[in-house]
Amino acid sequence: MACHTGGADVGTRSADPRSIKRAGLEVRRLVREDTWTAVRRHRWLLVQLALFLLVLAVATGFLTRFLGGDDLAVGFVVGAVVGTVPFFGLTFLVGQGLAHRSMGADAEQWTAGELAKLDRRRWTVFHDVPMEYGNIDHLAVGPGRVYAIETKWTARSDMDRFLNGASRQAERQACDLESVLSARGAGREVIPLLVVWGPGTAAVFEGKPRMIGQTRAVHGGDAEDWLGRMNGALDSLEIDRPARMAIEAHLADHAREPSAATA
Q: How high does pLDDT run on average in the chain?
């Protein structure tokens, strides 16, 4: 794979890079930041909506009481009005594109859960690994194999276009990791893998992986197949220790970065 060279400087992560809890951590941090930005931008609209719901709840409560309703009826009516708050909140998040991104973080957790099934004696898996541009969702270092794994959640209908773009991203990240390993004296090929989740995506793959460029794209729900392929392609019985140590050193350097922003 023809790859460009580059360093890395994006910020530290607070969790153990081998912990499943770390998966999706950066996405969630960015979603939180953008949520607060959206709330501040639309604060007056949200305040007006909150006041409207409050007045509506009080008014319907009084009306129910006026019409002879008992405490149970009043509580039911007021509760029904208050119960619309989560609906409006979800509508706001969807409208800002934040709900979709939050699902992406959940998908990273699902992929991390599947990768946890790999034999720990022969595999080391890292999550949310910072690179020069963004991060790599998961890295799997096994006997004679290093995988850069990109997780995507999508509900889009133009799947071919989506998969082409996501596969190119996975290839770029694999190239970036190759550069990092080479700079630390552990140069070797990194295999890009794209794991896709979302409604309707299983039908796109039909239980089979798809090669898009140099990236193997798989459906997350077909983990038994793609994990089996990872295990079945092993060149040796022992983990690639030089590659693992190079990645650990890369992560340690970022943890010491004084200007890094913690999650």
A: 77
Total count of domains within the chain:
2
- Cα dihedral 183, 186, 187, 192 sign: negative
Residues in the chain: 263
Residue 24 backbone phi and psi in degrees, to 5: 80, 5
Pair 56, 154 in one domain = no
**CB within 8 Å of 76: residues ≥ 6 apart:** none
The DSSP output letter for 261 is P
At a CB cut-off of 8 Å and minimum separation 6, what does 80 contact? Answer: none
Query: By the 8 A CB rule, do 16 and 125 touch?
Result: no
Domain region containing 127: 103-255
Domain boundary among the residues 95, 114, 147 is at 95
143: three-class secondary structure by DSSP = coil
Whole-model pTM: value is 0.68
Q: Under a CB-based contact definition with an 8 Å cutoff, are residues 119 and 231 in contact?
A: yes
Q: What is the pLDDT of residues 101-116, one digit of tens each?
A: 567 788 888 999 999 9
CA torsion sign for 114, 214, 163, 201 is negative
Three-class SS state of 35: helix
Q: CA separation (Å) from 34 to 94, 99, 131, 167? A: 13, 11, 21, 26
Do 107 and 212 belong together in one domain?
Answer: yes
Kindly state whether residues 55 and 129 are assigned to the same domain: no
CATH number for the domain harbouring residue 234:
3.40.1350
Same domain, 82 and 108: no
Strands 215-219 and 191-197: parallel
DSSP structure class, residue 233: T
Between the alpha carbon of residue 94 and those of residues 38, 87, 158, 178, 219, the distances in Å are 12, 11, 19, 37, 24
Taking residues 67-87, what's their average pLDDT? Answer: 63
Assess whether 39 and 149 both reside in one domain. Answer: no
